[in-house]
Write a structure and sequence with these properties.
single chain; alpha/beta; five-stranded mixed β-sheet; 17 helices; binds nicotinamide-adenine-dinucleotide; binds magnesium ion
Length: about 400
């Protein structure tokens, strides 16, 4: 019998992480998988419950003040408890065959890069690590023989559409977008929306931060940069198409005019399961689409005036270098300030635009691939710029 497949999940307690745990359990759990590390932040009870259920070797919370609580929650089981950034890196350096990178934000970058040194598969939900340091992550994967598989539903779709195609046969990528909760809202009305309104995504159930990023379309902007890097596409080969039903997860246009689309229900267990079972397919517990019930699929052009994030993403792709690190850090700072009700909904794009004006020229001139300390330094300086921007308004 072959040895059990060793798996780790970074960000196990989040929306993508919990869906990954669900699939592992449905596919045999600890009987079939050798679960190495599970990580979380504040939700200690869930992290401990997952660790017991999957008999994990180690559970790590990123919050050092919660180590005692995690130890107590794990009392009586074999899972070791650890806490803090160094413990996350230690967990990421443990040998594995399959790792889910599903921490939210730039916090996922360092553990993701460390996990990329393990060989095997790196299933990437944390799009921020590609946006901040895409060439660094890709270089590490190449040099360690690690297979980077996209988990973002759009990129999983594009990856599936391109299976069997020669890269030279790709004309454009058609990245679909639901348009979020404010798809038909005027810019004047957007000025006064609250965090609670912005969190309510029409089709997908996701973490709070990505839900608000969907409302501003910063999520789609990150995904444009992600597609540009993952599929080696020129900026003008990345199209965005509003498709409110989120049934077509994305498409590719090939050079002969053919269009290949990937369709499915809005359930992240689809793309997560694809990455888990790759290169094979296994039955997944997702709803089956019934075409007779799909009364209509509709499409609209993107609107970079109401959603400046899309325009800013094109600037970042054109500028290259570490512009993505500035873009992401400014976006994260803006999101924190919006959640704290220090700035309005539309101010978020203004902050990102100002940060790109201030730090973008320096960022775009950094040689590829950058070192991690460079990325973290630029990330920190962008956050400082963002805080000053918020406080001096
Ligand atoms: P989430 O907020 O639900 O979960 C985030 C996870 O990260 C949790 O386990 C949390 O404990 C952990 N975490 C938070 N802050 C941390 C820190 N500072 N250090 C270490 N760990 C920390 O987020 P999510 O919706 O599951 O999204 C996770 C990632 O997947 C994001 O990069 C997101 O863009 C991407 N993604 C999510 C979806 C989705 O459907 N939710 C779809 C596509 C891509
Ligand atoms: Mg997505």
């Amino acid at each position: 019998m072959s040895a059990a497949r060793r798996v780790s999940i970074f960000g196990a307690t989040g929306s993508v992480g919990a869906n990954t745990v669900d699939l592992l359990q449905r596919q045999g759990g600890a009987e079939v998988y050798d679960v190495v590390a599970l990580t979380g932040a504040g939700n200690i009870a869930l992290l401990a419950e997952q660790s017991r259920a999957l008999d994990a070797d180690i559970a790590v919370t990123s919050d050092p003040t919660l180590l005692t609580a995690l130890r107590e929650a794990l009392a009586g089981c074999r899972t070791q408890a650890a806490a803090g950034p160094d413990a996350l890196l230690e967990a990421a350096s443990r040998p594995t065959d399959w790792v889910m990178s599903a921490i939210v934000g730039a916090a996922g970058l360092a553990p993701g890069l460390k996990a990329a040194e393990q060989g095997g598969v790196l299933a990437l939900a944390n799009k921020e690590s590609l946006v901040c340091a895409g060439t660094l992550l890709q270089t590490i994967c190449t040099s360690h023989g690690t297979r980077l598989l996209p988990v973002d539903s759009e990129h999983s779709a594009i990856f599936q559409c391109l299976a069997g195609a020669d890269r030279a046969e790709l004309e454009t990528i058609v990245l679909t977008a639901s348009g979020g909760p404010f798809r038909t809202t005027s810019r004047d009305e957007m000025a006064t929306v609250t965090p609670a309104q912005a969190k309510a995504h029409p089709n997908w159930t996701m973490g709070e931060r990505i839900s608000i990023d969907s409302a501003t379309m910063f999520n789609k902007a990150l995904e444009m940069i992600e597609a540009h890097l993952l599929f080696d596409a020129e900026p003008d080969q990345v199209e965005v198409l509003i498709h409110p039903q989120s049934i077509i997860h994305s498409m590719v246009r090939l050079t002969d005019g053919a269009i290949i689309a990937q369709l499915g229900p809005a359930d992240m267990r689809g793309p997560i399961g694809y990455a888990l079972n790759y290169p094979r397919r296994s039955p997944l517990p997702v709803e089956r689409l019934n075409f007779a019930d799909l009364t209509k699929l509709t499409f609209e052009a993107e609107d970079p005036v109401r959603f400046p994030a899309l325009r800013l993403a094109r600037e970042v792709m054109a500028a290259g270098g570490l512009s993505g690190a500035v873009f992401n850090a400014a976006k994260e700072t803006a999101l924190d300030a919006f959640l704290a009700e220090q700035i309005g909904f539309l101010d978020m794009a203004d902050l990102v635009s100002a940060a790109l004006d201030a730090l973008g020229p320096e960022a775009s001139s950094v040689a590829d691939p950058p070192d991690l300390p460079w990325v973290l330094d630029l990330d920190a300086r962008t956050r400082a710029f963002g805080s000053t921007w918020v406080n001096t308004r």
